[in-house]
Amino acid sequence: MHDPDQAGAELDSTAGVPDITAGRSVSIAGQWLAPGRVNLIGEHTDYNDGFVLPIALPQGVTCTAASGANGEVRVASRQRPGAVVTWPIPEIDDSESGDAVGRVRHWPDWARYPLGVAAEYLRRGHPITGVDLELDGTVPMGAGLSSSAALSCSVAVALRDLFAPGLTDAELIDIARTAENEYAGVPTGILDQSASILCRAGHALFLDVRTREHRQIPFDLERFGLRLLVIDTRSPHRLVDGEYARRRAQCEAAAATLGVASLRDIATIGDTRRIGEPVLRRRARHVVSENLRVRQVADILGAGRDPREVGPILTAGHASLRDDFEVSTDRLNTAVEAALTAGAYGARMVGGGFGGSVIALVDARRAACVTGVVEAAFAESDFAVPHAFPVVASAGAHRVE
Ligand code: GLA
């Protein structure tokens, strides 16, 4: 087990990457980009069959890919200077032996994502004759912004265009997610990969995880003089340390107590009072109330109303993650409180929790002031300097060249 974001990309990389196609016969080449994400609302709802509302970030991972017939998958990463991992396709292919996941232990941590995606294509019967992949990216690592999903999805879209053009978006999302779950050993839901593949520029993605139905909701803050700030608290989050899996198990136990397949099936917060065990009751209350918040925010934005109206709902989502789901931290709480003190309309932690980033909805002209107040609060508490930056809703995974 390892940090999922270690395989992703980091900001400001200047390291060189070897020309891994030198001397090889290449038939098709191109470059694909898959973005990281930030979730406006809908945290820890995806593995409860609920609702999510992410946007794609301008930051992403690029995969420069060249297909050939050399019988190998070869991967290099600009964030791993000098390291080139080459693996013969018959050893990745477990469509007959069912053994590829067991071989993961031979792969370096960072390469488990791209090789896992390749293995999953093979397992599903899509032949890969040979491919060279060069990865590079700008999603901050460990910031809860899905650098690992950006990585998996960039490879998944590249391999689709090169080897399996008929693949649907839903299959692509499943392949990227399986690579993370089984090969990298990170038990994510489907939020991050869905956001990276399905999001559109200028829109938030409303996704019903159970039915996979989704719709694009206009999200143009500039028109309202607003800005969405991401504040990376520089305290890396980890999904693999057991807490995330524990929350999943608690949600399943809560659903079982209520006699439903998943907490998605619970319509009102009042229903969660039937759970006797106080921790499970709080976990369920978060999930049920968060699903309601997603739909409220989607309704407000979908009707073209002023996005300032969603501010208090975002802040209520933070309180629920902090008090009922217990996945927030002092740094995340400090960032949220300081942003609100400085005039943010709403603020909340994003992603799985236990570190990572916060979002704040602010007047564009107050963005610098909010950043300053958060930085001062961090200095006061002796926390490392946070990194705040504005984001706009950007395009999902696509071919760049
Ligand atoms: C992580 C997981 C997602 C989702 C979020 C919490 O980002 O990868 O699947 O569960 O946490 O909403």
Key attributes of the depicted protein:
single chain, 401 residues, alpha+beta, Ribosomal Protein S5, domain 2, Alpha-Beta Plaits, 2 domains, 6-stranded mixed sheet, 4-stranded antiparallel sheet, 11 helices, 13 strands, binds alpha-D-galactopyranose, kinase
Question: How would you sum up this structure, described in words?
Answer:
With 401 residues, this protein is of the alpha+beta class. It folds into two domains: 4-215, Ribosomal Protein S5, domain 2 (2-Layer Sandwich); 220-391, GHMP kinase, C-terminal domain (Alpha-Beta Plaits), CATH 3.30.70.890. It contains eleven helices and 13 strands. The protein has helices at residues 89-92, 100-103, 112-123, 147-163, 169-183, 191-198, 243-258, 278-302, 311-323, 330-341, 367-380, and strands at 28-39, 51-52, 54-67, 72-77, 84-88, 131-137, 203-208, 214-218, 226-232, 346-349, 357-363, 387-391, 398-399. A six-stranded mixed sheet has the order 5-4-6-3-1-13. It has a four-stranded antiparallel sheet with strand order 10-11-9-12. Strands 2-7-8 form a three-stranded antiparallel sheet, sandwiched between helices. Strand 10 and strand 11 form a beta hairpin. The longest helix has 25 residues, at 278-302. The radius of gyration is 21 Å and the shape is globular. The model is unreliable at 1-16 (pLDDT under 50). The structure holds alpha-D-galactopyranose. Alpha-D-galactopyranose binds at residues 43-44, 46-47, 188-189, 191-192, 239, 351-352. Residues 43-44, 46-47, 188-189, 191-192, 239, 351-352 line the site of alpha-D-galactopyranose. Residues 118-198 form the GHMP kinase N-terminal domain. Residues 32-65 form the Galactokinase N-terminal domain. InterPro entries: Galactokinase (IPR000705), Galactokinase_CS (IPR019741), GalKase_N (IPR019539), GHMP_kinase_C_dom (IPR013750), GHMP_kinase_C_sf (IPR036554), GHMP_kinase_N_dom (IPR006204), GHMP_knse_ATP-bd_CS (IPR006203), Mevalonate/galactokinase (IPR006206). It is an enzyme of class 2 (transferase). This is Galactokinase.
